[in-house]
Design brief:
This is DUF4371 domain-containing protein. Residues 41-206 form the DUF4371 domain. Pfam families: DUF4371. It comes from Paramuricea clavata (Red gorgonian). With 209 residues, the protein is an alpha+beta fold. It contains six helices and four strands; from the N terminus they run H-H-H-H-E-E-E-H-E-H. The protein has helices at residues 8-40, 63-73, 79-84, 95-120, 168-181, 198-201; strands at 123-131, 137-146, 152-161, 189-193. Helix 1 (8-40) crosses helix 2 (63-73) and helix 1 (8-40) packs across helix 4. The mean pLDDT is 79.
Amino acid sequence: MEKKTTPVDVMLHDLKKQQIEENRKLLCPIINAIVLCGRLNIPLRGHRYDSQYYLSDDVNPGNFIEILKYGVTCTGQSLEEYFKSTPKNITYKSKTTQNEIIDICDDLITQKITNEIREAKFFSILADEASDCGNVEQLSIVVQFVDKKHHIREEFLGFVPCKTSVSGEALANTFQEFLGDRNLSIDDCRGQGYDGAGNKAGRISGVAA
């Protein structure tokens, strides 16, 4: 009786599927550590973040590595063993990967909040601007709305750099563009809250106008 052989394309598909599952397992503790840092509002990286300090007990490489080390230890595995089980080019512990995961979390959280705002239909805008360390005006935008449980919510949606100017017209255009990118209509805005500056609260040429 002739033995059946598995087609090459099926073998490659199964191998790729297995690699995806293994990579997901490797990512879980890393994502959990990053999310925990975000929930506690603590920085991820310390003063010494070079890879040579990851396994050191004498130097603090940062909260992310320490939390990851603790989480891996709870599974009965050391961080060194955990890193050895992964290829050197896909350890997912670099600051670039951390930032990518943070951006993904940001997108998911923002999407969830904007969906709730759309369900509520009407909302109010609270905003203020301040200069960052690069002397660029950053506009912080908070939206207030009543959710489906009838709770009054205030949710921060993001910082927007004021690239052109901070005039009333420029800020108004920034608002509309920001809301439009999140599928929120300015027509559903029922209130505005500012710090009283003329370029925002002015009744003639301010954003409120």
